[in-house]
Amino acid sequence: MTRLGESVARASELLAQDLSLDSTVEQLLTETKARRYLDLTDLSPDEQAALIAGRAVEVLPGREKLAERIGELRATGKGLHIKLGIDPTAADVHLGHTVPMIVLSRFQRMGHDVTLLIGDFTAKIGDPTGRTAERPPLTDADIEKNLAGYREQVRPFFDFDAVRFVQNSEWLSPFTFPELLSLLSQVPVSQLLQREDFRSRLASGSGLTMSELLYPVAQGLDSVALDCDVELGGADQLLNLQMGRKLMELRGQRPQLVVTMPLIEGTDGTGAKMSKSKGNYVGLNATADDVFGKIMSVPDRLMEPYLKAWTEWTDEEISLALSRIESRSLHPMDLKKVLAGEVVAVLYGVEAAMAARAGFVAQFSKKSFTDVEALPVVEVAEHGAETVTGVLSKVLGFQPSASAARRVAKQNGLRLIVETGDGQEAIVLAEADAIRPLGEVVPELLSGAGLGSDAGAVYLKAGRRVAELRGL
Fold first, then answer.
1. Residue 310 half-sphere exposure, CB side, CA atoms within 13 Å?
2. Are 317 and 309 in contact (CB under 8 A)?
3. Dihedrals φ, ψ of 275, to 5°?
4. Of 184, 187, 192, whose CA–CA distance to 129 is shortest?
5. What b/e string do you get for 313-333 counting C-beta neighbours within 10 Å, with b at 16 or more?
6. Does the pTM exceed 0.85?
7. pLDDT in tens, 134-153
Protein backbone atom coordinates (compact mmCIF):
# COMPACT_ATOMS: atom_id res chain seq x y z
CA MET A 1 0.00 0.00 0.00
CA THR A 2 1.24 3.51 -0.79
CA ARG A 3 1.86 6.10 1.91
CA LEU A 4 -1.22 7.98 0.75
CA GLY A 5 -3.27 4.78 0.87
CA GLU A 6 -2.20 4.17 4.48
CA SER A 7 -3.19 7.71 5.45
CA VAL A 8 -6.56 7.37 3.70
CA ALA A 9 -7.24 4.11 5.58
CA ARG A 10 -6.56 5.81 8.94
CA ALA A 11 -8.65 8.87 8.08
CA SER A 12 -11.53 6.79 6.72
CA GLU A 13 -11.80 4.98 10.05
CA LEU A 14 -12.15 8.35 11.78
CA LEU A 15 -14.63 9.64 9.20
CA ALA A 16 -16.89 6.70 10.01
CA GLN A 17 -16.98 7.69 13.70
CA ASP A 18 -18.90 10.38 15.61
CA LEU A 19 -17.65 13.68 14.15
CA SER A 20 -19.39 15.71 16.82
CA LEU A 21 -16.71 14.56 19.28
CA ASP A 22 -13.72 16.87 19.71
CA SER A 23 -11.35 13.95 20.27
CA THR A 24 -12.27 12.32 16.94
CA VAL A 25 -12.05 15.60 15.02
CA GLU A 26 -8.66 16.41 16.54
CA GLN A 27 -7.28 13.02 15.44
CA LEU A 28 -8.70 13.54 11.95
CA LEU A 29 -7.23 17.05 11.59
CA THR A 30 -3.86 15.79 12.81
CA GLU A 31 -3.89 13.02 10.19
CA THR A 32 -5.01 15.21 7.27
CA LYS A 33 -2.70 18.11 8.14
CA ALA A 34 0.28 15.73 8.16
CA ARG A 35 -0.85 14.54 4.71
CA ARG A 36 -0.13 18.02 3.29
CA TYR A 37 3.57 17.18 3.62
CA LEU A 38 3.33 13.49 2.65
CA ASP A 39 5.89 12.07 0.19
CA LEU A 40 3.89 10.95 -2.88
CA THR A 41 6.76 9.61 -4.99
CA ASP A 42 5.58 6.02 -4.50
CA LEU A 43 2.40 6.65 -6.51
CA SER A 44 2.35 5.16 -10.01
CA PRO A 45 2.04 7.48 -13.06
CA ASP A 46 -1.64 6.54 -13.36
CA GLU A 47 -2.26 7.25 -9.66
CA GLN A 48 -0.46 10.59 -9.89
CA ALA A 49 -2.46 11.64 -12.95
CA ALA A 50 -5.70 10.57 -11.27
CA LEU A 51 -4.91 12.59 -8.14
CA ILE A 52 -4.23 15.72 -10.22
CA ALA A 53 -7.18 15.24 -12.58
CA GLY A 54 -9.53 14.69 -9.64
CA ARG A 55 -9.13 18.33 -8.65
CA ALA A 56 -8.97 19.81 -12.17
CA VAL A 57 -11.67 21.15 -14.44
CA GLU A 58 -9.80 19.94 -17.53
CA VAL A 59 -6.59 18.11 -18.37
CA LEU A 60 -5.63 18.71 -21.99
CA PRO A 61 -5.14 16.74 -24.12
CA GLY A 62 -6.22 14.18 -21.50
CA ARG A 63 -5.48 12.46 -18.19
CA GLU A 64 -4.00 9.49 -20.06
CA LYS A 65 -1.50 11.79 -21.79
CA LEU A 66 -0.49 13.21 -18.39
CA ALA A 67 0.14 9.71 -17.03
CA GLU A 68 2.04 8.83 -20.19
CA ARG A 69 4.37 11.81 -19.91
CA ILE A 70 4.98 11.13 -16.21
CA GLY A 71 5.91 7.56 -17.09
CA GLU A 72 8.24 8.61 -19.92
CA LEU A 73 10.19 10.98 -17.72
CA ARG A 74 10.25 8.62 -14.75
CA ALA A 75 11.93 6.04 -16.98
CA THR A 76 14.79 8.52 -17.49
CA GLY A 77 14.99 9.38 -13.79
CA LYS A 78 13.33 12.78 -14.25
CA GLY A 79 10.10 14.48 -13.25
CA LEU A 80 7.74 16.78 -15.05
CA HIS A 81 8.55 20.48 -15.35
CA ILE A 82 5.45 22.30 -14.06
CA LYS A 83 4.76 26.01 -14.57
CA LEU A 84 2.35 28.38 -12.84
CA GLY A 85 2.23 32.04 -13.76
CA ILE A 86 1.55 34.63 -11.06
CA ASP A 87 0.51 38.17 -11.84
CA PRO A 88 1.14 39.94 -8.51
CA THR A 89 -1.87 42.23 -8.74
CA ALA A 90 -2.86 42.43 -5.06
CA ALA A 91 -1.13 42.46 -1.68
CA ASP A 92 -4.04 40.77 0.15
CA VAL A 93 -4.52 37.10 -0.67
CA HIS A 94 -7.59 34.95 0.00
CA LEU A 95 -8.36 31.24 -0.07
CA GLY A 96 -9.26 31.34 -3.75
CA HIS A 97 -5.61 32.06 -4.60
CA THR A 98 -4.44 28.88 -2.86
CA VAL A 99 -6.29 26.40 -5.10
CA PRO A 100 -3.50 26.00 -7.71
CA MET A 101 -0.83 26.15 -4.99
CA ILE A 102 -2.30 23.09 -3.28
CA VAL A 103 -2.18 21.16 -6.56
CA LEU A 104 1.37 22.41 -7.19
CA SER A 105 2.31 21.11 -3.74
CA ARG A 106 1.08 17.67 -4.80
CA PHE A 107 3.19 17.84 -7.95
CA GLN A 108 6.19 18.79 -5.80
CA ARG A 109 5.66 15.89 -3.44
CA MET A 110 5.31 13.51 -6.39
CA GLY A 111 8.88 14.42 -7.34
CA HIS A 112 8.24 16.96 -10.11
CA ASP A 113 9.95 20.31 -10.63
CA VAL A 114 7.95 23.51 -10.24
CA THR A 115 8.66 26.93 -11.75
CA LEU A 116 6.73 29.95 -10.55
CA LEU A 117 6.65 32.59 -13.22
CA ILE A 118 6.34 36.12 -11.88
CA GLY A 119 4.52 38.11 -14.53
CA ASP A 120 6.30 41.37 -13.87
CA PHE A 121 6.16 42.33 -17.58
CA THR A 122 2.57 41.19 -18.20
CA ALA A 123 1.36 42.73 -14.93
CA LYS A 124 2.25 46.08 -16.45
CA ILE A 125 -0.14 45.24 -19.29
CA GLY A 126 -2.85 43.90 -17.02
CA ASP A 127 -4.54 40.53 -17.55
CA PRO A 128 -7.99 41.33 -19.02
CA THR A 129 -9.50 37.96 -18.13
CA GLY A 130 -13.03 38.42 -16.81
CA ARG A 131 -12.76 42.20 -16.95
CA THR A 132 -15.39 44.55 -18.28
CA ALA A 133 -12.82 47.34 -18.59
CA GLU A 134 -9.06 47.61 -18.99
CA ARG A 135 -7.12 46.83 -15.82
CA PRO A 136 -4.77 49.61 -14.64
CA PRO A 137 -1.10 48.62 -15.08
CA LEU A 138 1.18 48.14 -12.07
CA THR A 139 4.48 49.78 -11.25
CA ASP A 140 7.65 47.90 -10.25
CA ALA A 141 7.09 48.99 -6.63
CA ASP A 142 3.52 47.64 -6.71
CA ILE A 143 4.73 44.31 -8.07
CA GLU A 144 7.49 43.93 -5.47
CA LYS A 145 5.14 44.76 -2.58
CA ASN A 146 2.36 42.46 -3.80
CA LEU A 147 4.70 39.55 -4.45
CA ALA A 148 6.17 39.75 -0.95
CA GLY A 149 2.67 39.71 0.54
CA TYR A 150 1.59 36.85 -1.68
CA ARG A 151 4.51 34.61 -0.73
CA GLU A 152 4.12 35.27 2.98
CA GLN A 153 0.38 34.55 3.05
CA VAL A 154 0.39 31.46 0.79
CA ARG A 155 3.43 29.88 2.47
CA PRO A 156 1.36 27.52 4.72
CA PHE A 157 0.04 25.79 1.58
CA PHE A 158 3.24 25.51 -0.43
CA ASP A 159 7.01 25.01 -0.11
CA PHE A 160 8.46 28.11 -1.75
CA ASP A 161 12.00 26.98 -0.93
CA ALA A 162 11.78 24.08 -3.40
CA VAL A 163 10.81 26.04 -6.52
CA ARG A 164 12.48 28.05 -9.23
CA PHE A 165 11.40 31.68 -9.63
CA VAL A 166 11.65 33.49 -12.96
CA GLN A 167 10.36 36.81 -14.27
CA ASN A 168 8.95 37.12 -17.76
CA SER A 169 10.58 40.50 -18.31
CA GLU A 170 13.77 38.46 -18.92
CA TRP A 171 12.56 37.40 -22.39
CA LEU A 172 9.66 39.75 -23.10
CA SER A 173 11.53 43.03 -22.55
CA PRO A 174 14.14 42.33 -25.29
CA PHE A 175 11.50 41.00 -27.72
CA THR A 176 11.73 43.13 -30.87
CA PHE A 177 8.96 44.54 -33.03
CA PRO A 178 10.03 42.55 -36.13
CA GLU A 179 9.95 39.37 -34.03
CA LEU A 180 6.47 40.26 -32.81
CA LEU A 181 5.17 40.93 -36.33
CA SER A 182 6.61 37.64 -37.56
CA LEU A 183 4.90 35.80 -34.72
CA LEU A 184 1.56 37.57 -35.12
CA SER A 185 1.45 36.66 -38.79
CA GLN A 186 0.91 33.07 -37.62
CA VAL A 187 -1.77 33.82 -34.99
CA PRO A 188 -5.33 34.23 -36.31
CA VAL A 189 -7.21 37.21 -34.86
CA SER A 190 -10.26 34.94 -34.68
CA GLN A 191 -8.44 32.80 -32.10
CA LEU A 192 -7.79 35.82 -29.89
CA LEU A 193 -11.41 36.96 -30.20
CA GLN A 194 -12.77 33.61 -29.04
CA ARG A 195 -12.61 34.99 -25.52
CA GLU A 196 -16.10 35.65 -24.22
CA ASP A 197 -15.03 38.72 -22.25
CA PHE A 198 -13.50 40.27 -25.39
CA ARG A 199 -16.63 39.60 -27.42
CA SER A 200 -18.87 41.01 -24.70
CA ARG A 201 -16.87 44.21 -24.45
CA LEU A 202 -16.84 44.72 -28.20
CA ALA A 203 -20.58 44.05 -28.39
CA SER A 204 -21.27 46.60 -25.65
CA GLY A 205 -19.11 49.21 -27.37
CA SER A 206 -16.75 49.55 -24.39
CA GLY A 207 -13.69 48.89 -26.55
CA LEU A 208 -10.58 46.79 -26.39
CA THR A 209 -6.95 47.91 -26.42
CA MET A 210 -4.19 46.29 -28.46
CA SER A 211 -2.20 45.59 -25.29
CA GLU A 212 -5.07 43.49 -23.96
CA LEU A 213 -5.45 41.70 -27.27
CA LEU A 214 -1.76 40.79 -27.16
CA TYR A 215 -1.84 39.58 -23.55
CA PRO A 216 -2.53 35.91 -24.48
CA VAL A 217 0.36 36.06 -26.97
CA ALA A 218 2.68 37.39 -24.26
CA GLN A 219 1.57 34.60 -21.91
CA GLY A 220 2.11 32.06 -24.71
CA LEU A 221 5.68 33.31 -25.14
CA ASP A 222 6.23 32.47 -21.47
CA SER A 223 5.49 28.84 -22.33
CA VAL A 224 7.94 28.97 -25.24
CA ALA A 225 10.68 30.44 -23.04
CA LEU A 226 10.27 27.92 -20.23
CA ASP A 227 9.49 24.86 -22.41
CA CYS A 228 7.56 23.14 -19.62
CA ASP A 229 5.68 19.85 -19.66
CA VAL A 230 2.59 21.13 -17.83
CA GLU A 231 1.07 24.54 -17.16
CA LEU A 232 -1.48 25.16 -14.41
CA GLY A 233 -4.07 27.91 -14.48
CA GLY A 234 -7.61 28.85 -13.57
CA ALA A 235 -10.47 27.63 -15.75
CA ASP A 236 -10.87 31.22 -16.99
CA GLN A 237 -7.31 31.08 -18.34
CA LEU A 238 -7.95 28.19 -20.73
CA LEU A 239 -7.61 30.19 -23.96
CA ASN A 240 -4.40 31.80 -22.72
CA LEU A 241 -2.98 28.38 -21.86
CA GLN A 242 -3.97 26.99 -25.25
CA MET A 243 -2.13 29.89 -26.88
CA GLY A 244 0.97 28.58 -25.12
CA ARG A 245 0.45 25.18 -26.76
CA LYS A 246 0.05 26.80 -30.18
CA LEU A 247 3.16 28.96 -29.91
CA MET A 248 5.22 26.00 -28.69
CA GLU A 249 4.11 24.05 -31.76
CA LEU A 250 5.06 26.98 -34.01
CA ARG A 251 8.55 26.97 -32.44
CA GLY A 252 8.97 23.22 -32.96
CA GLN A 253 8.58 22.36 -29.27
CA ARG A 254 6.52 19.58 -27.76
CA PRO A 255 3.31 21.33 -26.59
CA GLN A 256 2.74 21.55 -22.87
CA LEU A 257 -0.16 19.77 -21.22
CA VAL A 258 -2.72 22.08 -19.63
CA VAL A 259 -4.37 21.59 -16.23
CA THR A 260 -7.13 24.05 -15.38
CA MET A 261 -8.36 24.58 -11.83
CA PRO A 262 -11.90 25.48 -10.71
CA LEU A 263 -12.87 29.04 -9.81
CA ILE A 264 -14.18 28.74 -6.27
CA GLU A 265 -17.51 30.29 -5.35
CA GLY A 266 -17.50 32.88 -2.59
CA THR A 267 -18.86 32.44 0.91
CA ASP A 268 -22.09 34.38 0.29
CA GLY A 269 -23.63 31.59 -1.78
CA THR A 270 -24.66 33.85 -4.66
CA GLY A 271 -22.64 31.91 -7.23
CA ALA A 272 -20.10 34.72 -7.67
CA LYS A 273 -16.40 33.83 -7.63
CA MET A 274 -14.56 34.43 -4.36
CA SER A 275 -13.35 38.00 -4.57
CA LYS A 276 -12.22 40.71 -2.22
CA SER A 277 -14.25 43.31 -4.14
CA LYS A 278 -17.44 41.33 -3.46
CA GLY A 279 -16.64 40.81 0.22
CA ASN A 280 -17.30 37.04 -0.15
CA TYR A 281 -13.78 35.83 0.59
CA VAL A 282 -11.74 34.29 3.41
CA GLY A 283 -8.52 36.26 3.85
CA LEU A 284 -5.35 34.33 4.63
CA ASN A 285 -4.35 36.97 7.17
CA ALA A 286 -7.66 36.74 9.06
CA THR A 287 -7.67 35.41 12.62
CA ALA A 288 -8.31 31.74 13.31
CA ASP A 289 -11.72 32.54 14.81
CA ASP A 290 -12.69 34.67 11.82
CA VAL A 291 -11.60 32.02 9.30
CA PHE A 292 -13.53 29.35 11.18
CA GLY A 293 -16.65 31.51 11.41
CA LYS A 294 -16.61 32.49 7.74
CA ILE A 295 -16.40 28.85 6.65
CA MET A 296 -19.27 28.02 9.00
CA SER A 297 -21.39 30.73 7.34
CA VAL A 298 -21.32 29.16 3.85
CA PRO A 299 -24.32 27.25 2.43
CA ASP A 300 -24.21 23.49 2.92
CA ARG A 301 -24.02 22.94 -0.86
CA LEU A 302 -20.52 24.50 -0.88
CA MET A 303 -19.05 21.87 1.42
CA GLU A 304 -18.15 19.47 -1.41
CA PRO A 305 -16.33 22.02 -3.63
CA TYR A 306 -14.63 23.52 -0.55
CA LEU A 307 -13.47 20.09 0.65
CA LYS A 308 -12.05 19.41 -2.82
CA ALA A 309 -10.39 22.82 -3.05
CA TRP A 310 -8.75 23.20 0.35
CA THR A 311 -8.20 19.79 1.89
CA GLU A 312 -6.02 16.82 1.02
CA TRP A 313 -9.01 14.50 1.23
CA THR A 314 -9.38 12.01 -1.60
CA ASP A 315 -12.60 11.52 -3.56
CA GLU A 316 -13.12 8.32 -1.58
CA GLU A 317 -13.06 10.19 1.73
CA ILE A 318 -15.30 13.02 0.51
CA SER A 319 -17.82 10.50 -0.83
CA LEU A 320 -17.79 8.70 2.52
CA ALA A 321 -18.56 11.90 4.43
CA LEU A 322 -21.28 13.03 2.01
CA SER A 323 -22.91 9.60 1.99
CA ARG A 324 -23.17 9.79 5.76
CA ILE A 325 -25.04 13.08 5.43
CA GLU A 326 -27.38 11.43 2.90
CA SER A 327 -28.04 8.57 5.30
CA ARG A 328 -28.49 11.05 8.20
CA SER A 329 -25.72 9.43 10.25
CA LEU A 330 -23.73 12.70 10.06
CA HIS A 331 -25.15 16.18 10.59
CA PRO A 332 -24.08 18.75 7.95
CA MET A 333 -23.06 21.15 10.73
CA ASP A 334 -20.59 18.61 12.11
CA LEU A 335 -18.99 18.12 8.69
CA LYS A 336 -18.81 21.88 8.18
CA LYS A 337 -16.99 22.23 11.51
CA VAL A 338 -14.44 19.69 10.28
CA LEU A 339 -14.04 21.64 7.03
CA ALA A 340 -13.54 24.90 8.95
CA GLY A 341 -11.03 23.12 11.17
CA GLU A 342 -9.11 21.91 8.09
CA VAL A 343 -8.63 25.46 6.83
CA VAL A 344 -7.63 26.85 10.23
CA ALA A 345 -5.28 23.92 10.82
CA VAL A 346 -3.22 24.59 7.70
CA LEU A 347 -2.96 28.30 8.54
CA TYR A 348 -2.44 28.15 12.30
CA GLY A 349 -2.13 24.51 13.38
CA VAL A 350 -4.44 21.86 14.82
CA GLU A 351 -4.39 23.34 18.33
CA ALA A 352 -5.63 26.71 17.00
CA ALA A 353 -8.27 24.91 14.91
CA MET A 354 -9.64 23.12 17.98
CA ALA A 355 -9.63 26.39 19.97
CA ALA A 356 -11.56 28.13 17.17
CA ARG A 357 -13.99 25.22 17.08
CA ALA A 358 -14.54 25.49 20.83
CA GLY A 359 -15.02 29.25 20.59
CA PHE A 360 -17.57 28.90 17.81
CA VAL A 361 -19.57 26.29 19.70
CA ALA A 362 -19.47 28.36 22.88
CA GLN A 363 -20.74 31.46 21.10
CA PHE A 364 -23.32 30.10 18.70
CA SER A 365 -24.86 27.47 20.95
CA LYS A 366 -26.13 30.32 23.14
CA LYS A 367 -29.89 30.79 23.08
CA SER A 368 -29.62 34.54 23.65
CA PHE A 369 -27.16 37.14 22.41
CA THR A 370 -27.13 38.52 25.95
CA ASP A 371 -25.24 35.37 26.95
CA VAL A 372 -22.45 36.14 24.47
CA GLU A 373 -19.53 38.11 25.78
CA ALA A 374 -17.85 41.01 24.01
CA LEU A 375 -20.33 41.74 21.23
CA PRO A 376 -19.54 45.08 19.56
CA VAL A 377 -21.89 47.93 20.49
CA VAL A 378 -23.20 50.76 18.30
CA GLU A 379 -24.52 53.83 20.11
CA VAL A 380 -27.37 55.09 17.95
CA ALA A 381 -27.09 58.57 19.46
CA GLU A 382 -23.55 58.78 18.10
CA HIS A 383 -23.91 56.95 14.78
CA GLY A 384 -27.62 57.28 13.98
CA ALA A 385 -26.99 59.70 11.10
CA GLU A 386 -24.82 57.09 9.34
CA THR A 387 -26.48 54.80 6.83
CA VAL A 388 -26.81 51.16 7.86
CA THR A 389 -24.23 50.24 5.21
CA GLY A 390 -21.90 52.92 6.57
CA VAL A 391 -22.24 51.57 10.11
CA LEU A 392 -21.48 48.03 8.91
CA SER A 393 -18.41 49.10 6.93
CA LYS A 394 -16.91 52.15 8.68
CA VAL A 395 -18.05 51.78 12.30
CA LEU A 396 -18.12 48.00 12.78
CA GLY A 397 -15.85 46.83 9.97
CA PHE A 398 -18.20 43.91 9.25
CA GLN A 399 -17.91 44.59 5.50
CA PRO A 400 -15.00 46.02 3.46
CA SER A 401 -17.16 48.79 1.98
CA ALA A 402 -20.65 50.25 1.98
CA SER A 403 -21.28 48.72 -1.44
CA ALA A 404 -20.33 45.26 -0.10
CA ALA A 405 -22.75 45.76 2.81
CA ARG A 406 -25.42 46.75 0.32
CA ARG A 407 -24.86 43.51 -1.58
CA VAL A 408 -25.43 41.56 1.65
CA ALA A 409 -28.74 43.37 2.06
CA LYS A 410 -29.66 42.58 -1.53
CA GLN A 411 -29.12 38.90 -0.69
CA ASN A 412 -31.42 39.23 2.38
CA GLY A 413 -28.42 38.86 4.68
CA LEU A 414 -29.10 41.89 6.95
CA ARG A 415 -31.44 41.56 9.90
CA LEU A 416 -32.55 43.25 13.08
CA ILE A 417 -32.83 40.73 15.90
CA VAL A 418 -35.07 41.73 18.80
CA GLU A 419 -34.88 39.67 21.98
CA THR A 420 -38.17 39.66 23.86
CA GLY A 421 -39.34 37.66 26.81
CA ASP A 422 -40.66 35.06 24.38
CA GLY A 423 -37.42 34.63 22.44
CA GLN A 424 -36.02 36.28 19.31
CA GLU A 425 -37.78 38.01 16.44
CA ALA A 426 -35.99 38.77 13.17
CA ILE A 427 -36.74 41.63 10.79
CA VAL A 428 -35.09 41.60 7.37
CA LEU A 429 -33.54 44.88 6.21
CA ALA A 430 -34.20 45.36 2.51
CA GLU A 431 -31.60 46.96 0.27
CA ALA A 432 -33.57 50.23 0.33
CA ASP A 433 -33.48 50.21 4.14
CA ALA A 434 -29.74 49.57 4.21
CA ILE A 435 -28.92 52.87 2.50
CA ARG A 436 -30.98 54.93 4.95
CA PRO A 437 -29.76 56.42 8.27
CA LEU A 438 -29.59 53.87 11.06
CA GLY A 439 -31.39 56.18 13.52
CA GLU A 440 -34.39 56.48 11.20
CA VAL A 441 -34.80 53.02 9.75
CA VAL A 442 -34.46 50.94 12.95
CA PRO A 443 -37.30 52.64 14.94
CA GLU A 444 -39.46 52.55 11.80
CA LEU A 445 -38.93 48.81 11.28
CA LEU A 446 -39.50 48.05 14.96
CA SER A 447 -42.75 50.00 14.90
CA GLY A 448 -43.89 48.31 11.70
CA ALA A 449 -43.32 44.93 13.34
CA GLY A 450 -45.39 45.98 16.35
CA LEU A 451 -42.32 46.26 18.55
CA GLY A 452 -41.48 49.36 20.53
CA SER A 453 -37.92 50.43 21.32
CA ASP A 454 -38.52 49.05 24.82
CA ALA A 455 -39.42 45.59 23.52
CA GLY A 456 -36.01 44.21 24.43
CA ALA A 457 -32.40 44.16 23.32
CA VAL A 458 -31.93 44.98 19.63
CA TYR A 459 -29.10 43.62 17.49
CA LEU A 460 -27.90 44.25 13.95
CA LYS A 461 -26.88 41.01 12.22
CA ALA A 462 -24.90 40.85 8.94
CA GLY A 463 -24.30 37.24 7.93
CA ARG A 464 -22.95 35.63 11.07
CA ARG A 465 -21.65 38.86 12.63
CA VAL A 466 -23.71 40.60 15.28
CA ALA A 467 -23.58 43.97 17.05
CA GLU A 468 -25.84 45.37 19.76
CA LEU A 469 -27.70 48.63 19.08
CA ARG A 470 -28.07 50.89 22.10
CA GLY A 471 -29.79 54.20 22.71
CA LEU A 472 -32.84 53.71 20.49
1. 31
2. no
3. -155, 140
4. 192
5. bbeebbebbbebbeeeebeee
6. no
7. 455 667 777 777 777 777 77
